[in-house]
């Protein structure tokens, strides 16, 4: 699907739309830009245009109107700079204190973060690539342990003559 790049719309091809697209960014994000209130994780894509995803958690921004304002301004700054940005899949994450910022401060922060992200994507640093984290383990069923964490740490006791395991005495 070719994305028209002549206008400044924020059409569906410019958005991360499903969990698999978000997961791909979270699992391997070699490009990052951060401020105390926001973190942007990104990875290059093969589409020829950038895409945006937003994660503005209620945990960090309690008020719904504040969350909506942050998302609106993040989309707007992205929309206006989309033609200058390197083709990346980017996810914006809000941190504590993001809801306390006013509209002008948010726009200034996002514009700075988009420039920094684009610069880092175009000029990757060798140490940035070396510090890249390994992929996260899969989450889901079967990840929980048996409940007895110490049992796995102790070596197995050989059975005694009647087949039962022996108990070590503390003395």
What would you say this structure looks like, in words?
The protein is an alpha+beta fold. The chain contains 5 helices and 4 strands; from the N terminus they run αβββαβααα. It has a 4-stranded mixed β-sheet, with helices on both faces. Helix 2 (64-81) links the parallel strand 3 (51-55) and strand 4 (88-94). The longest helix has 20 residues, at 103-122. It starts with 18 loop residues before the first helix and ends in an 18-residue tail after the last helix. The model has no long low-confidence stretch (mean pLDDT 79).
Descriptive keywords:
5 helices, 13% strand, 171 residues, single chain, alpha+beta, four-stranded mixed sheet, 4 strands
Write a compact overview of the structure shown.
It is built from five helices and four strands; from the N terminus they run αβββαβααα. It has helices at residues 19-27, 64-81, 103-122, 126-130, 149-153; strands at 31-34, 38-44, 51-55, 88-94. The chain is globular.
Helix content, binned percent? 25-40%
Placed side by side, the strands forming the largest sheet appear as: 1-2-4-3
Global mean pLDDT: 79
H-E string: HEEEHEHHH
SS-based class: alpha+beta
Sheet-strand content, in percent, reads 5-15%
| Low-confidence residue ranges | none
Strand element count = 4
The N- and C-terminal alpha carbons lie at a distance of: 74 Å
Q: Name the overall outline.
A: globular
**Number of helices in the DSSP assignment:** 5
Task: Compute the CA-based radius of gyration.
Answer: 23 Å
Biggest sheet overview: 4 strands, mixed
């Amino acid at each position: 699907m070719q994305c028209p790049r002549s206008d400044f719309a924020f059409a569906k091809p410019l958005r991360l739309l499903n969990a698999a697209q978000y997961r791909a960014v979270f699992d391997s994000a070699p490009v990052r830009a951060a401020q105390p209130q926001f973190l942007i994780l990104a990875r290059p894509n093969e589409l020829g245009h950038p895409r945006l995803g937003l994660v503005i958690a209620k945990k960090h921004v309690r008020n719904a109107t504040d969350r909506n304002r942050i998302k609106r301004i993040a989309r707007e700054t992205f929309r206006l700079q989309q033609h200058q940005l390197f083709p990346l899949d980017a996810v914006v994450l809000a941190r504590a204190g993001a809801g306390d910022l006013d509209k002008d401060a948010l726009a200034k922060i996002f514009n700075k973060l988009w420039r920094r992200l684009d610069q880092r994507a175009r000029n990757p640093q060798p140490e940035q690539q070396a510090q890249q984290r390994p992929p996260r383990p899969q989450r889901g069923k079967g990840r929980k342990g048996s409940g007895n964490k110490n049992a796995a740490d102790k070596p197995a006791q050989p059975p005694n003559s009647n087949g039962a395991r022996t108990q070590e005495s503390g003395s």
